[in-house]
Amino acid sequence: MTIDHSTEATNLTVRRTGRMVHDVPETGEFMVHRSAFTDGAVLERERRNILSRCWVYVGHASEIPNVGDYRTRSVVGRQVIFCRDRNDEVRVLLNTCRHRGALVCREPQGNDTTFTCFYHKWQYRNSGELIGVPGKISFPESFTLADNGLASASQVETYRDFVFASFDSSAPPLVEYLAGAADFIDRIADQGFRDGMEIVDGAHLYSMRCNWKLVVENSIDGYHGFPVHSTYFQYIGSRGVDLSVGLDGVPRDLGNGHACLDYLAPFARTVARTTAPMSDRAKQLITDIRAEADAALGEERAALVADRSKNIFVYPNLLIIDAASLQIRVLDPVATDYTNISAWLLAPRGEDRELRQIRSDSYQEFLGPGGFATPDDCEALETCQIGYQNIAEVEWNLVNKGYGVDAPEAVDNETQIRAFWRQWDSDMAGGPDGGTR
Amino acid sequence: MTSTVTDALLLRLRIEDFLFTEAELLDAWKLDEWLALFEPDGRYFVPPTDRPDARDTIATAFIIADDHERLTGRVRRLATDAAWVERPRSRTHRVVGNVRVESGTDSVGDDVVARSSFIVHRVRRGVTDCFTGRYEHRLRVVGDSFRIRERWAVLTAEALQPTGKIGFIL
């Protein structure tokens, strides 16, 4: 074992540099210090250097299709109103009255042109302007409606119906920030080549008693699939799904901390892959859709969009799991050892009901808090978090699979996870102005 | 009149017995015996917490909408050593009450609909989680007992936070 030796060496490194990621390409060493998952000061710094500076995912445009539609939610610890104002502009407003702070919108969703704080009846347009203050005459002249609209995210941009916000006015344009992830979001959005994509009604709101970065790692990790999810694969095999395909593909570094796993898998894909248990009608529909995709997108592109599974991480809070089914998974770090997760099923708009049923079945069988797989991931991650109580004796995690190894890239390597950690480390190492990007 | 009241009361007592037996089997992890309480096409549903009243499993993404085959798969999975989330198994304890019984409609094939409230505590690795909600059992009368056509577990919670996951049978 060389671990003891390298741990000793890197402890010196971390003491010298304060860095929590130890990365030595020459020797293929890549380690993450476990305090990254346990230290409250780290989470505070993440809030400052990452969550308050990056573009973060807020929601999908299909969740607020009509003028006046709104949803309230927590986005990386901020309470926001995600809405479509009267000019059809998507807004991300901070849900707090400028007067004393109460939530101005207390419903999870609805449609309205204004939001009125019930505490003192201050009224705001759904574009944020303050338009009504009872007893205004007795406020001093220095107080103006114009200065006291609802605060908003510094920037809001939509890419292929994925709505992002940044709470930093100096964040680069979204498409520049997304870097290589933009093309992978295209490969999701293009599955709606007929009529766009839509979030399916019904959110899966759950949590894990672990650090948010454990969920990031796990969601794009091809190495754990068979050991953790053997019961899932046995189950779909028992229903007649051909498992001989296996998982075949590569991890990818998409730049700026974004990463993905890009692979072929045995899962049913209602845009491309039929499986034995499907009805003849469903198989025919899928075959037709797949042929149509060739015509609409070109054969090469259609193969990337339709045939390949993709677990995509858009740094820092969005995961798009295009595997057993198509899931939007959003992370909201609450504490070092506790993360809220919101997840939705994404589907082509107007999908045939039988195909939607297949998509939904595949989702439930693998994904979500009642599935045959996600709960086992939860067990893995929560026990990692508990294992970190031994940090005094075991300080470092290893993330070195496939690093500097003279062999072809493989789906169960950890290249993509290293890409995430490098960006994280760079952001965390930055001063008040953040890291390099 | 007297006999009608007595019949209704007896039916409710028989249903309560059935529900209490079901709760006991689940808490004891006797899942094969529990599965045998279902009709061959019996189903099990948990709607998403933001849509507790949803009934259409295609229009809404359910947390669980098991047909009998998937329900059987769920039970088989939990019997293996590799359903990690329940190895070691949670201790669960459930209280079922507020039982109300109404006759079903023949058109959908149930004889009796039983509505009840549940409180389920899950204890595992130092953490106690509490699930509350209502059950709806759509039952067929079979001899002296009942068989489950549909079993709905509708959570009170607005989110599975902090309960996280439903790795056991709710």
List the defining traits of the structure above:
heterodimer, A: 437 residues, alpha+beta, Rieske Iron-sulfur Protein, Naphthalene 1,2-dioxygenase Alpha Subunit, Chain A, domain 1, 8-stranded antiparallel β-sheet, 4-stranded antiparallel β-sheet, 31% helix, 26% strand, globular, disordered N terminus, disordered C terminus, B: 170 residues, Nuclear Transport Factor 2, Chain: A, 6-stranded mixed β-sheet, 6 strands
Describe this structure in words.
The complex is a heterodimer of chains A (437) and B (170). With 437 residues, chain A is α+β, with helices and mostly antiparallel strands. Chain A has 12 helices and 21 strands. Chain A folds into 2 domains: 100 residues, Rieske Iron-sulfur Protein, CATH 2.102.10; 250 residues, Alpha-Beta Complex (Naphthalene 1,2-dioxygenase Alpha Subunit, Chain A, domain 1), CATH 3.90.380.10. In chain A, strands 13, 14, 15, 16, 17, 18, 19 and 20 form an 8-stranded antiparallel β-sheet that branches. In chain A, α8 packs across α9. Chain B has one domain: Nuclear Transport Factor 2, Chain: A (Roll), CATH 3.10.450. The model of chain B has no long low-confidence stretch (mean pLDDT 94). A 6-stranded mixed β-sheet of chain B has the order 2-1-6-5-4-3. Chains A and B meet through β14, α7, β20, α10 and α11 of A and α3 of B.
